[in-house]
């Protein structure tokens, strides 16, 4: 495991060398980093990680994005997620898999009251409709690994929440 300071990414290029597969779940929140910081982390750092990984020999890049990602969205979060999806695809990996999970069900160390309320609500809904509006982070992680073990023919594959649930069962 290597800790990378993306403000000094040139000093960390060696950490991205010699890997066939890259997994990226990098992200922050607007509340934590501000609008500019959110864009810097969720778009710029992720795109830079993809470029460094490709330069280091990575063949398959797996990106965790978000349901509703759209570079044309009026909402900053969804627009940034859509923009980074486009940037990562443009890097030119042999395979690129983009996962678009809905609300992530997980335990966090930091306090995010609104997210906690959403998780409680969607956790209850998941009892009746398990793939509708949420997904446990463990399922996303299993799906990320499974998509590398079964890359398929397509150069770019986008997995929405239902497909993440299916693949995460494997």
UniProtKB/TrEMBL annotation:
Can you name a GO cellular component term?
Answer: cytoplasm
- Which is one Pfam family of this protein? NAD_binding_10
Location of the NAD(P)-binding domain: 4-151
* Record GO biological process: import into nucleus
Q: Report the InterPro entries cross-referenced here.
A: NAD(P)-bd_dom (IPR016040), NAD(P)-bd_dom_sf (IPR036291)
Any one GO molecular-function label of the UniProt entry: catalytic activity
Task: Cite the record's note on assembly.
Answer: Monomer. Forms homodimers during oxidative stress. Interacts (via N-terminus) with elongation factor EEF1A1 (via middle-region); the interaction is direct and competes with EEF1A1 binding to guanyl-nucleotide exchange factor EEF1B2, thereby inhibiting GDP for GTP exchange and reactivation of EEF1A1. Interacts with nuclear transport receptors XPO4, IPO5/RANBP5, IPO7, IPO9 and KPNB1 as well as GCN1L1/GCN1 and LRPPRC probably through their HEAT repeats. Binds NCOA5/CIA.
- Protein name according to UniProt: Protein HTATIP2
């Amino acid at each position: 495991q290597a800790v990378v300071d993306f403000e000094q990414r040139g000093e960390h290029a060696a950490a991205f060398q010699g890997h066939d597969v890259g997994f990226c779940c990098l992200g922050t929140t607007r509340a934590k980093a501000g609008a500019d910081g959110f864009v810097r982390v969720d778009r710029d750092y992720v795109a830079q990680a993809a470029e460094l990984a490709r330069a280091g020999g990575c063949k398959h890049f797996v990106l965790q994005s978000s349901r509703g990602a759209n570079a044309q969205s009026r909402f900053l979060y969804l627009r940034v997620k859509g923009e980074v999806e486009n940037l990562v695809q443009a890097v030119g990996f042999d395979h690129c898999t983009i996962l678009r999970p809905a609300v992530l069900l997980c335990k966090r160390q930091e306090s995010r009251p609104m997210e906690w309320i959403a998780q409680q609500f969607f956790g209850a809904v998941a009892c009746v409709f398990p793939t509708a509006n949420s997904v446990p982070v463990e399922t996303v992680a299993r799906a990320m690994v499974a998509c590398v073990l079964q890359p398929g023919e397509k150069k770019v594959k986008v997995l929405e929440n239902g497909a993440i649930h299916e693949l995460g069962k494997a």
